[in-house]
Amino acid sequence: MKVAVVGTGYVGLVTGTCFAETGNNVTCVDIDPKKVESLSKGKITIYEPGLEVIFERNRKENRLKFTTSLEEGIEGAEVIFLALPTPPGEDGSADLKYILGVAHDLGNTLKDYAVIVDKSTVPVGTAEKVTAAIAKNAKVDFDVVSNPEFLREGVAVDDFMKPDRVVVGTTSERAMEIMNRLYAPLVRQGNPVIFMDERSAEMTKYAANSFLAMKITFMNEIANLCERAGADVDMVRKGIGTDSRIGKRFLFPGIGYGGSCFPKDVQALGKTANEFDYDFKILNSVMKVNDKQKTKLIPVLKDHFGGDLKGKTIALWGLAFKPHTDDIREAPALYNIKSLRRAGAKVVVFDPEAMDNVRGVVGRKVKYAKSMYEALEGADALMIMTEWPEFRTPDFDRIGESLNNKLIFDGRNLYDLDLMEKRGYTYYSVGRKSIKA
Ligand SMILES: NC(=O)c1ccc[n+]([C@@H]2O[C@H](COP(=O)([O-])OP(=O)(O)OC[C@H]3O[C@@H](n4cnc5c(N)ncnc54)[C@H](O)[C@@H]3O)[C@@H](O)[C@H]2O)c1
């Protein structure tokens, strides 16, 4: 099948590469000429485990191409995915200017019937808006389908190739047949393709992300309460996670969620609710709690140093919003860097993959270490922001020798309390008792 993907970011590049991997001829279109040049030359533009191998294979087989021209990219395509940004607009609702702009251009460029697929996360009613924007100038038949993406950065290839489910919003039998054919290789184990109307598909994506954000936030509130009540949130997590009605995942407490999806999607669903005159109270609480949670260790750090961080050097491990990605959008680490600098501290950072992206945003306001241990040299404390695997079992002797004090503020609860006590550390984490050496 000939497939086009418009927008070649995290979602578009994974979508295009994975559909090429199942034998389709894919052309990815992006407005960014640097990105297209780099991808055309075989240089991948994001860090996503497992992507590079299949990207390279399919590019060499000529099944995966890149262009800046929409007209060239969609030529002969039966399916055209829109994997474009939907950032928050000024009022917090999803900004559809990228999607509707391309939809308008598609109206002028479509030469044959095609299925246009909203892969981006878009509010209820967008498929109708996209249909109207294309129909304004289109001279051929087309269908607009909502097919939200549930991949997780860091395991995106696996999620895409073996999805729990595929949600397809359309009532067109012609579009259903094409989508079934396209997804058949990915759902051979019986994971369902769930067909529904466009509005329900659009709502499904926001409901899923908001539910997960709420689950994380609920656990963070339990953690905050555990600290006050003298309970251990790790025990509570195990105690409730074994209940099959609750489940073990998304129960790990920490310094809040970030990323390009949860923050904007929770906000956008709240705006959708407002548009329909519904006060979705839980969403507002989730946003408020998460905002505060991101920097919850800063006052603890200040207290430890008698209220003053001026002249202190703080080492930060982890900058990406979660491990196995270089994505720093809405990453809690960025909020902590800001707070630390505002309090007069110097900041030294290390992340296995996200350093270049942080350099682009933060510039010279922090120091960039070449290794996790280099970051600690002469620092007064270590803060852990992201649970990269290499931070889980570090060399504690080396940490102790490098830091000025054996002092760790752990936003991801990586270490065992008893072991930290035995090793002589002062150790603060989330929802557990503090260890004072
Ligand atoms: N990143 C995720 O984990 C994830 C998961 C599920 C859903 N989503 C949703 O998918 C959508 C895309 O997210 P992303 O993270 O891939 O975004 P991104 O910012 O990484 O990529 C978007 C790409 O679109 C390109 N673009 C912008 N305008 C264009 C135009 N007119 N023509 C062609 N290309 C254009 C940009 O240059 C960029 O490369 C969003 O709606 C997001 O909410 C993201």
List keywords for this structure.
3 domains; 42% helix; 14 strands; 17 helices; alpha/beta; binds nicotinamide-adenine-dinucleotide; Rossmann fold; 437 residues
Account of the protein in words:
The protein is an alpha/beta fold and 437 residues long. The protein folds into three domains: 2-196, Rossmann fold, CATH 3.40.50; 205-292, N-(1-d-carboxylethyl)-l-norvaline Dehydrogenase, domain 2, CATH 1.10.1040.10; 295-428, NAD(P)-binding Rossmann-like Domain (Rossmann fold, 3-Layer(aba) Sandwich), CATH 3.40.50.720. It has helices at 10-21, 33-40, 51-60, 70-74, 97-109, 126-135, 156-161, 173-183, 198-229, 233-241, 262-275, 281-294, 297-304, 332-342, 355-362, 396-402, 417-422, and strands spanning 2-6, 25-29, 64-67, 79-82, 114-118, 142-146, 166-169, 193-196, 313-317, 346-350, 367-368, 381-384, 407-410, 426-428. The protein has a six-stranded parallel sheet with strand order 3-2-1-4-5-6, with helices on both faces. Strands 11-10-9-12-13-14 form a six-stranded parallel sheet. The protein has a two-stranded parallel ribbon with strand order 7-8. It is globular and about 75 Å long. Nicotinamide-adenine-dinucleotide binds at residues 6-12, 29-32, 35, 83-86, 98, 101-102, 120-121, 149, 151, 153, 260-261.
